Amino acid sequence: TLAVAATPRRGPLARGACALLGRVARLLLGACREHAAQMERGVAAAAAERAQTVDYGLRIVAQEQVGLAYAGWDRLLTRVALPAWRMGRWPSRLDAGVVAALTELSRRDRLAEGFTSRLGERPACDLLEEPGSVDEATSLLAARLFHGGPAGPRADWAPVDWQSYPEEVVDRTWRADAARLHRVLDSLGTRPARHTGAPTLARVLDHLTEPTDPDPAPGPTDPADDATGHNEREATGDPGDPGGPARTAPGTALVPAHTGADTFPDHPATAGDRGADEHDEHDEHDERDEDGEDEDPGTERSALLAAGLSAEVAREENAVPRGATAAGQSPPCTLWDGGALPLVPLQPPRTPRELLTDHVTAMVCCAAVDTAGAVPALDWLDGPSLLLHGERAADLTPRVLSLIEEGDPGPLRDWLAAAGIRPEKPIRLV
After folding, report:
1. CA 28/CA 248 separation, integer angstroms
2. How far apart are CA 377 and CA 422, in angstroms?
3. Could you tell me which of 230, 229, 220, 185 has the C-alpha nearest to residue 204?
4. Which uninterrupted H or E stretch holds 415?
């Protein structure tokens, strides 16, 4: 009812009636909120009491199956659907994607073996008279609840099928992020490529690389220096002096950083392993927060670039019309207000370091596609992925983190050389 009332492009009479209908619906929802919560708690208590009478072994198996089904839905929404929603597209066959995600989960997780036989049967949604229409309605409802998308298709909110997802969503997302990264580099005054002036991966690598000797040892002192305490060239800032202030660049100090390489295995992990890793990483973040340490470690250069990206993303999100926010975050208003969408945001806002990691990874993927023949692909559990020489590149993230957090481009450059990716070549942006 609220979605129908919020639909634009109606006549004056219909618009007034829908506004009145929406106001009444919001009042009714607000009035029954407490009763609905009590009913939910009562149903949960009754279900828990009845579950105690079920055999313990069967109950444990059922709990595992429900947990795996939830994991499949969660992965599909957060890793697959959310990137499409941010690009103004919504998957037209969301239910089919859930089946594919659970099938992939059954291949990776030994606890999901029970799904294999049931997924081979005819899905229940095919028993409906119009399964395609129901699937589209489900996808639109999920996008509205979890992202705040429009109630129906429009020019900037179009469906996308799974066959077109790599080209329409994955590739476009990478190139949009790469273009944003270079715009921020331009605003920071970073020099473009020497010969072509076109956007290159080498420009990003050079900017984030920390100098190998940021604090050179002082040379022999002059007697005049002992008297004044300052070198004459140092005072004037002669650019020929390695120790002069004219050569001092932001981000030259090495900052101790916590690398996340251990949480990114080279092979695809099971859903249970990922959950444990995320839990351990969350505990580590909590411990660092309690100790007062920085939650986003990195070099000064990466911190400046991450801050610029955060500001740029915030400006773009503020420019998006109300009801179709790219971030999928609920505005600060009451739950039953007409603009309080999404009701259940899937993820908290990305931190500056996460934004920088995503953008540098996107830049690497664009370079791989344009210079090494790689192709964008879709993984049902991990979302957008890169296929390099027919295999999924699963070991890229720790190398990007090494560049961002430590200013060390060595691991990433070795990976690029082994994959045949040329960072000095120009790439195509949006």
Report:
1. 64
2. 21
3. 185
4. helix 410-419
DSSP code of 377?
A: E
Tens digit of pLDDT at every position of the chain (430 positions)? 555 656 666 677 877 887 888 888 888 888 888 898 899 999 989 988 888 888 888 878 778 778 888 888 899 999 999 999 999 999 988 888 888 888 888 777 655 555 555 555 555 555 556 667 888 888 888 888 888 888 788 888 999 999 999 999 999 999 999 999 999 999 988 877 666 678 899 999 999 998 775 554 444 444 444 444 444 444 344 444 434 434 333 333 333 333 333 333 344 444 444 444 444 444 444 444 444 344 555 788 899 999 999 999 999 888 765 544 444 444 444 444 444 567 777 788 889 999 999 999 999 999 999 999 999 999 998 999 999 988 998 889 999 999 999 999 999 999 999 999 999 999 998 7
Give the SS3 label for residue 246. helix
Residue 123: asked if its preceding bond is cis (omega within 30°), the reply is: no
Give the whole-angstrom CA distance, residue 136 versus residue 348.
26
Say how far apart CA 181 and CA 203 lie, in whole Å: 11
**Spans of all domains in the chain:** 172-211+252-419
Backbone dihedral angles phi then psi of residue 120, each to the nearest 5 degrees? -75, -15
Q: What are the phi and psi torsion angles at 376 (to 5°)? A: -70, 150
What are the E-state strand segments in 37-178? 89-91, 158-160
Residues contacting residue 113 through CB under 8 Å, at least 6 positions apart: 106
Answer for the pair 347, 305: CB distance below 8 angstroms, yes or no: no
In this structure, what are the phi and psi dihedrals at residue 384, rounded to the nearest 5 degrees? -60, 135
Dist CA 94 CA 9 (whole Å): 27
- Give the span between the Cα atoms of 277 and 269, in whole angstroms: 10
